[in-house]
């Protein structure tokens, strides 16, 4: 049972932890190619600080932890972090969202350390497009990373795809066919206004309905019942058992069932991807006037506070919506 229940009755079970804001790609919907506004090293939570937060959070009912970023596999002690999370008194389920560039090297060690699941981002099956979308010629490394994850038993690998108008919006059926052939579990995510360059436009966004129509031209999609707090609307493909997911974050928000909190790499708690405010945990973790027990108590108090302050929804569809100042890469996707 989670003790982190907000004023709308939503119990929080899931913590998204950003391990770094740095990344080895520059996906245009996430980070501008010349981005340089990095979090200074001393502001990043140390692994000990992170583990203290996770110990408190799991004690309050957080039972799922997703490691993300930026690119979480750039964190030098990522394998050790997974092992330490598994050794917590109430170990949560651990997953990682990654661009897979380092997965060929790390899938086995991560699995041995207790990682259960991995989500990989891949938006195109064309090497030149990949290069244009990410500013790096690393398409083959992603495929090698996915294969290594499957070979290591991190299966089924979930693959996340964002479609952008005029860039890769013709690739939904091909991505699904590749997923069916390779045993990936594919999910399309509507592009959200979280790019540091502020380029997102609702008028050009590829919507969930459009993706559904594109896929339906070639496949029979039947809704999978019981979505729970999962963000994706899942569909059986041609009767199943394979499924495809569509995450309609913008056009059909799932805030009413949201059970997530987020911790940025510099120790700021967020109760929503689109929150305008953050609550500083780092300041409590580094307060030398507090004893270790008092630090724990303060972290707990702040976790409860950020949950209490959670709004009913992200408000993307409100006329006065203002996007958060940090890009997705710094918030942690
Ligand atoms: N670097 C890792 C990766 O790409 O998987 C983890 C971090 S990334 C921010 C997490 C997820 O957020 C990725 O699946 C990415 O496609 C998605 N994402 C980033 N910016 C987005 C945006 N503006 N709209 C929708 N999804 C976005
Ligand atoms: Fe990096 Fe992931 Fe953002 Fe792409 S989506 S720039 S891989 S953090």
Automatic annotation (TrEMBL):
The lineage of its organism: unclassified sequences, metagenomes, ecological metagenomes. Residues 7-222 form the Radical SAM core domain. Pfam families: Mob_synth_C, Radical_SAM. GO terms for biological process: Mo-molybdopterin cofactor biosynthetic process. It comes from freshwater metagenome. PROSITE patterns: RADICAL_SAM. Keywords: 4Fe-4S, GTP-binding, Iron, Iron-sulfur, Lyase, Metal-binding, Molybdenum cofactor biosynthesis, Nucleotide-binding, S-adenosyl-L-methionine. InterPro entries: Aldolase_TIM, Elp3/MiaA/NifB-like_rSAM, MoaA, MoaA-like, MoaA_twitch, MoCo_biosynth_MoaA/MoaC, rSAM, rSAM_sf. SMART domains: Elp3. This is Unannotated protein.
């Amino acid at each position: 049972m989670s003790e982190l229940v907000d004023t709308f009755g939503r119990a929080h079970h899931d913590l998204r932890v950003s391990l770094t804001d740095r990344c080895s790609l520059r996906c245009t919907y996430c980070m501008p190619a010349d981005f340089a506004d990095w979090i200074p090293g001393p502001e990043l939570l140390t692994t000990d600080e992170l583990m203290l937060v996770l110990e408190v959070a799991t004690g309050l009912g957080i039972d799922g932890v997703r490691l993300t970023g930026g690119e979480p596999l750039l964190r030098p002690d990522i394998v050790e972090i997974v092992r330490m999370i598994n050794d917590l008194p109430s170990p949560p389920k651990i997953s990682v969202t990654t661009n897979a560039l380092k997965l060929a090297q790390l899938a086995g060690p991560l699995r041995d350390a207790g990682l259960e699941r991995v989500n990989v981002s891949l938006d195109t099956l064309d090497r030149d497009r990949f290069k244009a979308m990410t500013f790096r010629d690393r398409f083959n490394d992603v495929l090698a990373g996915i294969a290594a994850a499957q070979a290591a038993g991190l299966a089924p690998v979930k693959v996340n795809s964002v479609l952008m108008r005029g860039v890769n919006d013709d690739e939904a059926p091909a991505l699904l066919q590749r997923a069916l052939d390779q045993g990936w579990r594919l999910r399309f995510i509507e592009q959200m206004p979280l790019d540091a360059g502020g380029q997102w436009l609702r008028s050009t966004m590829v919507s969930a309905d459009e993706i559904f129509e594109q896929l339906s031209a070639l496949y029979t999609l039947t809704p999978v019942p019981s979505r729970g707090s999962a963000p994706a609307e899942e569909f059986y493909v041609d009767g199943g058992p394979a499924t495809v997911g569509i995450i309609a974050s913008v056009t059909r928000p799932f805030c009413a069932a949201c059970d997530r909190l987020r911790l940025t790499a510099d120790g700021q708690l967020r109760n929503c991807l689109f929150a305008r405010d953050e609550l500083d945990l780092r300041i409590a973790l580094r307060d030398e006037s507090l004893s270790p027990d008092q630090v724990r108590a303060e972290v707990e108090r702040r976790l409860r506070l950020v949950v209490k302050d959670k709004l009913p929804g992200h408000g993307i569809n409100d006329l006065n919506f203002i996007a958060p100042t940090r890009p997705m890469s710094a918030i942690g996707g």
